[in-house]
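Progress note, sequence design subtask.
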């Protein structure tokens, strides 16, 4: 028979990962880091946290082995410890959506009308087919730093905050397919609503960059 104390120790070590994931803000930080490495200051600003609080959350994630760091001059940049961490986050999200009804309620409130179902969507394979045929303009509406860290090849970068003033940069007669961070990112929904209101043909990728990477689809980076 195994040693009971050692068994307890084993499960306690496994629980460190679960405990690190037990915070909505830490999950949000993982969601942001899935787009690319970031500084503490950048993460704090985007997540709406103070520097001290953001640092504490990141240390918890680092102690659980979920994130790693590297130094660039005087700046410490955080990144996911591996693609398996992104996959774990995605699986957690999938399980929560399947078994916690409140997740769908919150998703609907966040993404807008009918949970974003008011905007047309296309799947990954359909996007690839139409992009290769030159039938659509692929539009990345994430911040420029996230686009630079990795984007769908051939995509045009116009952050959602700049889209109203830069509509003229998109061909008027072309259909636009917008995408952002992931299936729970509101930027692509907002982009489609804005484009449609302006009389443009537009749809959104049903997922986002998180799912695109995990599906081993091609990713381009800014040179």
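Output:
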């Amino acid at each position: 028979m195994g040693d009971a104390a050692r068994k307890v120790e084993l499960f306690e070590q496994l629980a460190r990962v679960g405990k690190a994931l037990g915070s909505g803000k830490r999950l949000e930080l993982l969601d942001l880091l899935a787009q690319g490495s970031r500084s503490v200051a950048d993460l704090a600003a985007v997540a709406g946290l103070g520097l001290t609080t953001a640092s504490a959350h990141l240390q918890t994630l680092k102690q659980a082995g979920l994130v790693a760091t590297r130094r660039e001059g005087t700046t410490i940049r955080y990144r996911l410890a591996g693609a398996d961490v992104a996959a774990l986050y995605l699986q957690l999200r999938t399980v929560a959506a399947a078994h916690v009804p409140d997740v769908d309620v919150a998703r609907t409130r966040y993404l807008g009308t009918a949970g974003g179902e008011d905007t047309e969507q296309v799947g990954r394979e359909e996007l690839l087919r139409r992009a290769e045929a030159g039938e659509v303009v692929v539009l990345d509406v994430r911040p420029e730093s996230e686009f630079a860290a990795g984007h769908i090849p051939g995509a045009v970068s116009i952050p959602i905050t700049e889209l109203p003033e830069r509509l003229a940069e998109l061909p008027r007669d072309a259909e636009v397919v917008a995408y952002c961070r992931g299936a729970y990112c509101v930027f692509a929904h907002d982009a489609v609503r804005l484009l449609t209101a302006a009389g443009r043909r537009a749809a959104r990728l049903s997922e986002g960059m998180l799912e695109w990477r995990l599906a081993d689809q091609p990713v381009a980076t800014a040179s």
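Residues 107-214 form a domain with the Oxidized Rhodanese; domain 1 fold (CATH 3.40.250.10). Work on this subtask will continue into the next period as scheduled.
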